[in-house]
Amino acid sequence: MPNPTDYRMRVEEILRDSSVKSIDREIISDILDQSRAIIFDGHFNLINGMHTDTFFRFAQILQYPRFITKISEGIADWYSATYKINIDVVLSTEGPGMVLAYEISSILNKKYKMKSTAMFSDRDPATGKPRNSLSEGFSIKSRKKVLVVNDITTTTTGIATLIALAKSYNAKVIAACVFASRAVEEEKAMLYKKTKIVLAEMIDLKIQQWPKYDCHLCKENMPIIYSRDLQMLTACDMNTPEILSELARNAA
Ligand SMILES: [Zn+2]
């Protein structure tokens, strides 16, 4: 096991300057360090089909309510300072993003006197990507103002789906924010071109990814882990490297 200081250093090496600066860098590092949300030295198949050795898993952070509150407050503070428009709906997708949406909505209401509700879309169980439909029982009224949020984006396509979903109800998307982004600049530019929404992120991760045919880890026959398999694990499981090797063996 690498020592804790090494872990923190490695985390700081892959953090780029991000757009949402409402939480101190030091606190972000503490959250990532304590939750171990970034998993290094693996061999992962991302939902976009690319391969990588580093994986970000928001579920690690979900086990600490105080971190979720801190992150949500940071996003609520950033939103209020930047847009000054009252939000009606905080929209995310089934899964970890839901927890953020509820907490952000709650803080917008308490601290900024808004009257927002939280809603979420269905998601594809195989890939974890949002689907273009609201979960059963939800509906967004015409002209409502929407803040789209999610835990992480890999390529921005999930965020584009949520924006399109809100627009299909004739609602107005004011802003979109993720806790973590590993999208490249071209993908963010494409999202803006399609939706006219600038995606904001609290942490911008500089993590290399590459196509399967160009994967040095595949060439070394290192067993691969699919992101959908990681999603099924509990946060506690992830703390043991043996589980990771076991998963990779099963997937092989
Ligand atoms: Zn590979």
Tally the helices.
Answer: 10
Distance N to C terminus: 24 Å
The structural class is: alpha/beta
CATH class value = Alpha Beta
The major pleated sheet works out as: 7 strands, mixed
Bound molecules: zinc ion
* Structural domain tally: 1
| Beta-strand segment tally | 12
Poorly predicted runs = none
C-alpha Rg (nearest Å): 18 Å
Architecture, according to CATH? 3-Layer(aba) Sandwich
Q: What's the rounded overall pLDDT mean?
A: 90
So what's the overall shape? globular
- List the secondary-structure elements in sequence, H or E: HEHEEEEHHEHEEEHEHEHEHH
Strand order of the largest sheet: 1-11-10-9-6-7-8
Counting copies of identical and different chains, the oligomeric state is single chain
* Helix amount: 40-55%
Report strand %.
Answer: 15-25%
CATH topology title: Rossmann fold
How would you summarize this macromolecular structure in one to three sentences?
With 252 residues, this protein is α/β, with parallel strands linked by helices. The chain has helices at residues 4-13, 25-35, 59-62, 65-83, 96-112, 157-168, 185-195, 216-219, 227-231, 241-251; strands spanning 15-16, 38-39, 44-45, 51-52, 55-56, 89-93, 117-123, 130-134, 145-153, 172-181, 199-205, 225-226. Bound molecules: zinc ion.
